[in-house]
Amino acid sequence: MDFPILSSLILLPTIGALFIFFTKSKSDENKSSKYLALFVTFTNFILSLYLWYLFDASTSEFQFIEERQWLKGIINYKVGIDGISILFIILTTLITPLCVISVNNAIKNRLKDFLIAILLMESLILGVFCSLDLVIFYLFFEGGLIPMFLIIGIWGGNRRVYSAFKFFLFTLLGSVLMLVAIISIYWINGTTDINELYLIGIDVKYQKLLWLAFFSSFAVKTPMWPVHTWLPDAHVEAPTAGSVLLAAILLKMAGYGFIRFSLGLFPDASEYFVPLIYFLSLVAIIYTSLVALMQDDMKKLIAYSSVAHMGFVTLGIFTFTQQGIEGSIFQMISHGLISAALFLCVGVVYDRMHTRLISDYGGIVSIMPKYAILFMVFTLGAVGLPGTTGFIGEFLILVGAFKKSFLVAVIASLGVIFAAAYMLWLYKRVIFGDLEKENLKKMLDLNKSEIFILSFLAIPIIFFGFYPEPLINTIEVSVSNLIENYNSITNNNLVKK
């Protein structure tokens, strides 16, 4: 295929942002800016589905490769996708138009600038999942910090400046070491091309240090315990659309990085650091679940639940099993849909009551039945109920964990019980009970745009919960090839020793 479909996907939101930027900033222009942003993001979603249609799932090779010389002899613009990256691209293009629709009530000031930030962020995130050069990956990876920093810092809550700077500094400091590692890889191997690095391999004596450098960035971005503290603050202060982008897409870049780089480039070091990953993942699952049980703010509770769910992801990736890695990818897609929906549900009641405290609600099932039904679907998805995507991901991860360590799997299983505890507790206190508070009686049920957004997320959560085959088939060959390469490299190195 001659058409540069990946570059089109990456550049289209930026072109849309430029069009919005150069439109006149009159109040009546806000509507046209929103329609333009919606058109661009929806077009990108259709284009990503077409990409999925063209994608050949029977091969593990990178497809739709585009390569352009940038800095002669040093950096090349190189993009391509495999079975692992394509699902993250679709997730990104699905979530972004829903964020654009959701700004109806939430964003009153500087709507144009907010839409520009969302579009630029989509471009940068898509670049992360398409990059086949370490330098290009790093530029896109770090570039995504800027629009999110602005979204939190300008349109956030009362403590928005503190939260924005905390988010920026945590993630930036983690990534400085990754930049040093990328420069070191170029010095050692003479290239930053990911395909070539897979073929050449990286000398075992350098792997541990390089692995730790990449880990420092991915651990903060995931986020893993104990560098997770920026996430609840960022979520609480961010506007609803910002929280959706952060939870649904931004956190997935780190999980993708672990699979693509930690396992792909540093297999021996990954094997060596397995105990560390298992320990941090289990602490994240158990500790943050218990912390979630103590929260009185809905957003904070969901934020801590995100840390716990991403603990399952990192655990699954480092089982080095087909089920574990497939489960982790599935869990990331599932969490992207469910967490986005939960934050949108919080946004719905916040727009009406301007409070996120759980104690300020109760008994709203009698006045908001549509909301109660959809909220229940997403709550059960977060719990991991069979018939939802949450179950498939967690089940596969636990199967992979059982193959490696019975004890690790048993401890991780406790996280499923805790998830049920804090999510059902949240649902019960907000939805059920007596409608005693007078101000709640004035609340209106979901409007048409809210029903559309939440239904659009509920459908894939249920559909792929019952029929996960399309997603599993897409990733199966690429994951299998990753594990084969991993095993062959680690076994060869053991023989040499």
Write the layout of secondary structure elements.
Blueprint: H1 5-21, H2 29-54, E1 63-71, E2 75-81, H3 83-106, H4 111-130, H5 134-143, H6 145-155, H7 160-189, H8 194-200, H9 204-221, H10 230-237, H11 240-265, H12 267-272, H13 274-293, H14 298-317, H15 322-353, H16 369-383, H17 389-404, H18 406-431, H19 448-466, H20 469-496
Antiparallel strand pairs: 1-2
Helix pairs in contact: 1-2, 1-4, 2-3, 2-4, 3-4, 3-11, 3-15, 3-20, 4-5, 4-6, 4-11, 5-7, 6-7, 7-9, 7-10, 9-11, 10-14, 11-14, 11-15, 13-14, 13-18, 14-15, 14-17, 14-18, 15-16, 15-17, 15-19, 15-20, 16-18, 16-19, 17-18, 17-19
Explain this structure.
- This protein has 497 residues and is mostly helical.
- Helix content is 76%, strand content 3%.
- The protein contains 20 helices and two strands.
- The chain has helices spanning 5-21, 29-54, 83-106, 111-130, 134-143, 145-155, 160-189, 194-200, 204-221, 230-237, 240-265, 267-272, 274-293, 298-317, 322-353, 369-383, 389-404, 406-431, 448-466, 469-496, and strands at residues 63-71, 75-81.
- The chain has a two-stranded antiparallel ribbon.
- Strand 1 (63-71) and strand 2 form a beta hairpin.
- Helix 2 runs parallel beside helix 4 and helix 4 runs parallel beside helix 11 (240-265).
- The relative contact order is 0.10.
